Amino acid sequence: MPNLEQIKRELKKYNFAYEENVLPVHTNGHYFLYGFYEKGIAIFALRPDWTIEEGALLPWGDVLSLKVKKSLLFENRMDILTPKMNISMKIMKSTGGCSWIKENLKKLENLNYYQNLSFAFGGAEKADDNCAASRAGQKKAQERENTTEIVETIYRKMTEYTAAPMVSFELEEGDAGLFDCKIGGAYYVPEGEHRLENSRTGEELYLLAQVNFAQIPHLPDYPEQGLMQILISSEDMYGCNFEDGYDQTGWCIRYYETLPERAEKSCIREPDWHEDTALPMEREVTYRLKPTEIVQTMPFDDVNFWPAADTCLDSELRGYLENDDVMDGLCDMYEEYMCQVGGYPFFTQSDPRSADDGEILLFQLNSVKDIMWGDSGVANFFIDREALKNRDFSHVMYNWDCY
Questions:
Q1: Per its UniProt record, what PANTHER family does this chain match (predicted)?
Q2: Which listed residue, 194, 204, 258, 348, has the most CB atoms within 10 A of its CB?
């Protein structure tokens, strides 16, 4: 998968210097890079591997108006009107495998950054209303408005029916306490218990994440207190058995309902790292987890989306779910969370659950900051709701996938 330097080299081939005013955009499954500079807008069509297929220049003199609209949740929209066409693109905030977007995520999330690309060209009102191209542009604009209304109606009804509370975590750099919510680092083992190992290889497991439920907003059926630890193996698949996600041979999950005020040194474990240690993060990676409670809508890649849609949408609205533009619009409405407890999962491939499993998301960790699951993947941990109520973590499904 190309990285920032590869994209820079691609742009250089077309004599376009890399600057911060290059935006990745897409529409109807086609991807582009838009570059803004003194001559106009350089538009580069991209192949699936993010190499440039061809480029073209749209001079400023041909641009009647340029508007950037902030969407409700996810991707913002850019509309460019010329005498011959009406261009509408979605500005990408995140795409798996594209390092350029990840490195510039903060700027792409800043609406003011987009606004300074909105130039006062004038002349749009003076365009010939009888121009066929103008009429075509108006028709397309009306179609977009209709599609937007349909998308928002579907999203609103799905939200009313499927809204679920969850806790989203922001990853903060710096050391965390032994019993704090965190990613990586040392972990607690009660006095008298053995170190946690891969039962096949005998290798000590490494802490992936832990959640102190007393430090986060309470979710229905989840513990109000206690410490949950997830530990994984240092091997290619990070201890995951893709044939049997419940197999805890190469990983484990522990829950301690009560904790001591302080831990003896003998109760603190931090496994050594070796040359062949393979984990989703490096040894020095430790993040504190800052919790925020959020209400989440079921996304369309959830295994229960279609049964839910059959229940809460009428036949006309369900029919629109076969429309690519509508589904594309729904994609834009959903927020992708980097780390969470509860709510609905995110996948780069497909949901490993069956619709009748009754399993809910216990914990999820996406590829974020210095954490990388394969090629920009995500790890999910699922648990039966009744087992969760009973604080029984012996039958948890572990799965991760990537692009």
A1: SLL5081 PROTEIN
A2: 348
Work out the average pLDDT over 351-375: 92
Quick count: other Cβ atoms within 10 Å of Cβ 316?
Answer: 8
Dihedral pair phi/psi, residue 267, rounded to 5°: -95, 5
pLDDT single digits (tens) 220-276:
999 999 999 999 999 889 999 999 999 999 999 999 999 999 999 999 998 988 888
Q: Is the CB of residue 325 less than 8 Å from the CB of residue 147?
A: yes
pLDDT score of 61: 84
- The superfamily (CATH) of domain 164-297+334-401 is YwqG-like (2.30.320.10)
> Which CATH fold topology does 4-127 show?
PH-domain like (2.30.29)
4-127 and 164-297+334-401, same CATH topology: no
pLDDT tens-place string over residues 193-213: 888 999 899 999 999 999 999
* Domain positions in the chain: 4-127, 164-297+334-401
| pLDDT higher than 80, residue 115 | no
In three state form, how does the secondary structure of 323-380 look?
Answer: CHHHHHHHHHHCCCCCEEEECCCCCCCCCCCCCCCCEEEEEEEECCCCCCCCCCCEEE
